[in-house]
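Ticket closed. Logging final result for TRIP4/RQT4 C2HC5-type zinc finger domain-containing protein.
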Amino acid sequence: MHRTPWTSSGSLTSDRIPARPLPAKQQPKGKGQGPPKSKAVSALETRLHNVEYASGKEKDPKGSCFCPAREHDLSTYVPLCYGCGLVLCNLNLPHYACPHCGESFLDNSRRPALVAQIQEELCMQVVKEDEERQRAIVEARKAEGAFPMLPGAADGTQGARKGTAAGPQSSHKVMSLNNTTKKVTVRSYTNTPVSSRPPSPAPEEPRRVPPPPKEISYVKQPPDPAHPWKNMQFPDLQYVPPPKDPNTHGKQQKKKGRGQ
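Final structure:
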């Protein structure tokens, strides 16, 4: 066998060219393999972390709410303060102390129950979002319709459809026939859908009812014996009769005429 300078590495001249290392896929920082977390999941994870590690003696820096669940829903974690009996709405988070008496809700007996409750809510929320995601994928595949698959490109088409359902980009192949040359041309297209909806505005901070005044408002002067039913808090009030209806007198006359 006749050997050439390049037969030690291969039988072709191109085999002597050193192969370049393939570039590694750059993964975006801060993102995991799965889908991004929703706001509900992130809020539950933050709440779980606070309940596990907070002391429970600090008060809410944003200010608590004293609406007694009249303007907001009743709290599902601590609906009633164990110390003073204040009714708490859902704006009063469980890792903060009672806004009125300062009672902590995270003692050795209550903290494990709250942690278990939030963990269950977190699992249910994750399962719910996963079911909605799978349902959206199935609906997207149904919306594509029964597109005829090209021979030899079944795997690529299925991969493109999976990318269409799960990712923001959609890929598809188009087969065209030239009437003059009688040749078949296959072209691939990738479309990036643009959302037509405007960005949703940031949610407004819910209104928090301030605490009641420390001083009780009452009339400090004794009542007048001549006017025991006088309004001492607003003495200048005057009665204003309602306006008279001009048709009322005529209606009364007609009723009297019918009675006679």
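Confidence is low (pLDDT under 50) at residues 24-28, 153-167. No further action required.
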